[in-house]
Every structure is written in structure tokens, then in C-alpha cells.
Automatic annotation (TrEMBL):
Pfam families: Thioredoxin, Zn_ribbon_Thio2. Belongs to the thioredoxin family. GO terms for biological process: cell redox homeostasis. Keywords: Disulfide bond, Electron transport, Metal-binding, Redox-active center, Transport. One of its GO terms (molecular function) is metal ion binding. Transmembrane segments: none annotated. One of its GO terms (cellular component) is cytosol. InterPro entries: Thio2_N, Thioredoxin, Thioredoxin-like_sf, Thioredoxin_CS, Thioredoxin_domain. This is Thioredoxin. It comes from the Bacteria. Residues 18-145 form the Thioredoxin domain.
């Protein structure tokens, strides 16, 4: 029997069982048929974040940010580039703290940009502030291992 991983659809938030013996890059949602991995970070609300964190068998890295934050805007392209190179081993998401203050409060976000990594529904790592592409990639690669 083939082992499967739960992956939440970035489009409709349905929980999908993705066989580990098939390329995850080609996986599509069983409900809405959108690609499960699209090569860019997904925007999540507080509610959607909780659904993804609670129902995903792959690590999730979340960038807590705000549009008025200069370092956050500088981090955006670096984060997107890292997403393209590492996904689907890790899900990348973004949460706007101005629109989702309850998520920021729940995860004790005190400064932005802030990266929080989740595995099996729990926070496993944090990183605060602007970082370069190489450091970010190394941090995420260690989480994906």
C-alpha cells in the first residue's frame, strides 16, 4: 500500500491525500482541481492558517508581514524565490498581520518580518527580521530534512 501525505489545497482549503510515490509537483486538488503546489507563497487568513497547520503532513513556513513594512517588502522576493526552489517539500505561506491580528497574537509575533515554521501542527522554529536568500534557504532546508 502506498503511503500518503495530507496536503491542504491552497485554493479551496480541502484536505488531499497525496501518494508519496508520485511527483508532488503534479498533484491536484480532488475537489477544485487546482495544483496543490503553485511555486509561490499562499496568502492565508487566521482561519485558513489554522486549517493548513492542523491538517498538513508537510512542514509549513509562514511569513508574518505587513505592506507598510520596508524589511517585509524587501523579504518578499527572497521568500518567493525560496518557495520556487524548495516547494513541494515545504508549504510557504504569508499572513498579513494588519488583516489578521489574531494570528499574530496567537503566535506571539512582536516584530516583522517574522518567519514561523510548523510541523505536525506545532511551532518548530522561528526567525525574525530580514534575511538573505542563502540563509533563508539553509534554514528551510534544515526544516525540510
Amino acid at each position: 500500500m502506498t503511503e500518503k501525505r495530507r496536503v491542504v489545497c491552497p485554493n479551496c482549503d480541502s484536505i488531499n491525500a497525496v501518494p508519496t510515490d508520485r511527483p508532488a509537483e503534479a498533484a491536484k486538488c480532488g475537489r477544485c482541481h487546482a495544483k496543490l503546489f503553485q511555486g509561490f507563497p499562499i496568502d492565508l487568513s487566521s482561519e485558513r492558517l489554522e486549517r493548513h497547520v492542523a491538517n498538513s503532513d508537510i512542514p509549513i513556513v509562514v511569513d508574518f508581514w505587513a505592506p507598510w513594512c520596508g524589511p517585509c517588502r524587501a523579504m518578499g522576493p527572497i521568500y518567493a524565490q525560496t518557495t520556487k526552489s524548495i516547494e513541494p517539500r515545504v508549504r510557504f505561506a504569508k499572513v498579513n498581520v494588519d488583516e489578521n491580528p489574531q494570528a499574530a497574537a496567537r503566535y506571539s509575533i512582536q516584530g516583522i518580518p517574522a518567519l514561523v515554521a510548523f510541523r505536525e501542527g506545532k511551532v518548530v522554529a522561528r526567525q525574525a527580521g530580514l534575511t538573505d536568500a542563502q540563509a533563508l534557504r539553509g534554514w528551510v532546508e534544515r526544516l525540510a530534512a
